[in-house]
Fold this sequence. Notes:
Elements: H1 29-44, H2 65-82, H3 88-97, H4 108-111, H5 116-131, H6 144-158, E1 181-183, H7 184-201, H8 204-219, E2 232-234, H9 251-269, H10 281-299, H11 324-338, H12 343-360, H13 391-403, H14 443-448, E3 457-461, E4 464-468
Antiparallel strand pairs: 1-2, 3-4
Helix pairs in contact: 1-13, 2-3, 2-5, 2-13, 5-6, 5-7, 6-7, 7-8, 7-9, 9-10, 9-11, 11-12, 11-13, 12-13
Amino acid sequence: MRWPTFKAAGAACLLSQTAQALTVTATDTTSIKSAASTVAFGLLKYYTGNNTGDVAGNLPSPYFWWEAGAMFGTMVDYWFITGDTTYNDITSQALLHQVGDNNDYMPANQTRTEGNDDQGFWAMAAMSAAENNFPNPPADQPQWLALAQAVFNEYTTRWDTTSCGGGLRWQIFQFNNGFNYKNSIANGCFFNIAARLARYTGNQTYAEWAERVWDWEVGVGLITPEYKILDGASSTGSPGNCTKPDTIQWSYNAGIFLHGAAVMYNYTADGGSTTAGGATSAAWQTRMEGVLAESKSHFFGNDSILVETACETVGLCDNDQQSFKGYMLRWLSGTAQMAPDKFAEITPLLNANAEAAALACTGTSSGFKGTDGTACGFKWTTGGFDGQVGVGEQMSALSALMYSLVRPTTQAAVTSTSGGTSAGNPNAGQKNTTAVALTPITTGDRVAAGFLTSAIVMSVIGGSVLVMI
Length: 469
Ligand SMILES: *[C@@H]1O[C@H](CO)[C@@H](O)[C@H](O)[C@H]1NC(C)=O
Ligand SMILES: *[C@@H]1O[C@H](CO)[C@@H](O)[C@H](O)[C@H]1NC(C)=O
Ligand SMILES: *[C@@H]1O[C@H](CO)[C@@H](O)[C@H](O)[C@H]1NC(C)=O
Ligand SMILES: *[C@@H]1O[C@H](CO)[C@@H](O)[C@H](O)[C@H]1NC(C)=O
Ligand SMILES: *[C@@H]1O[C@H](CO)[C@@H](O)[C@H](O)[C@H]1NC(C)=O
Ligand SMILES: *[C@@H]1O[C@H](CO)[C@@H](O)[C@H](O)[C@H]1NC(C)=O
Ligand SMILES: *[C@@H]1O[C@H](CO)[C@@H](O)[C@H](O)[C@H]1NC(C)=O
């Protein structure tokens, strides 16, 4: 991901509202599936990677590469939850085309600007494919589980103890803006993947790393005693060494740690051992419940509707941030599956957001190529379409609809001993990713990639967002 750029809310966008096309009742599975199908159709209309001459797995500008990984992760779940196979072929094609020469989601076209979080969203898509038994690639192609393991292995080599007592840096390469920032999304990807690999494979090494990442986040105060997940902290400068976290809270940071903690709870409660001195299942349960409670109070309003509080109310969410709510709901439903006694608490949230998101999917916009009257806006709190359209808005609404279909009877993520069929390779990945760094990007590339050379610092003080350039 990049330093935030701000897109004006609904700017130059003619508000157009047609009669509500998606009628949804949370308890009516058929209505949700039908609405999800319509919204998925609109989402994939943004995708051009399967057009002749285009590159499979890439979204067109202004969307960055990581968001395509997030989108295909969503589509893996979409197929699993709804049974609709329409997009399986383009999903497989994208997930395999972007693996890169070393089967680790570091394709040469992306590597120079790639961050640990960017790589992580593709790896989590592969992990979901393994956990859902998404059709396995042909034997001569890389396999889902091995792809996630490759990224995990590379993360371990990037664990940086030269500052902050550890942690992953946001960026992989020194020449990229954000190399000196250690943040919760990069470490959250590591934590989430490690926890899921531990549960899938039963290999304790993964659990130890999950534990290490969590402890580090707590140690530097990125996870607070109230279980707020703060954005990140600078390793250099003054104050450096991660002593002064940027306190902004994003819903996807809360979600990624919530789900990872739930997976660790499930793993430790159901037979996986803890490391000597490590957290017990009771401790993981406390952590999971702590993040859940804090998330509910911070991101879900009194009417249970999810709000990206840091930017949504002031209309300053950028393209990346407009997709975050969808991941929160993905990981919220996954949490209920890992701790089924949480369904009673989580299902009402999922249901409320499915119905609210459907009401926001009633737009028509020149920027939207799906069916008129079904473009999804960004805010779910208004009871209608707010005029903002894009991949993030559409994908988040799809997530709100489809994850509400996750019930106690829905198949949960499988493991290698409960039906998982994806082939792994514990030694996948490169020993030295610095070797593939190539050269720093040129000025031309920076402009092309929309890279910001002047860092934008964003902080929230008393509920208002200050933007300083
Ligand atoms: C690419 O996939 C989308 C979504 O399924 C579809 O609408 C479009 O027709 C496909 N394009 C090509 C060239 O196959
Ligand atoms: C890299 O970019 C080239 C030129 O656009 C394209 O042909 C190729 O398919 C891309 N490779 C990947 C893995 O995206
Ligand atoms: C930097 O922070 C780590 C973790 O909090 C701490 O262990 C270490 O002593 C600090 N280093 C310096 C030079 O302050
Ligand atoms: C929720 O209700 C509490 C108590 O009435 C109030 O203090 C708080 O501001 C409300 N929060 C939101 C997001 O509306
Ligand atoms: C772990 O997850 C599985 C799959 O949903 C579930 O059946 C099991 O009850 C969970 N374990 C605990 C301790 O909640
Ligand atoms: C467990 O995972 C570690 C880390 O990837 C690996 O080195 C080790 O070989 C694995 N053990 C087994 C039994 O697969
Ligand atoms: C990794 O590769 C880079 C570039 O080839 C080299 O400078 C560096 O020493 C290597 N690091 C290790 C640990 O081998």
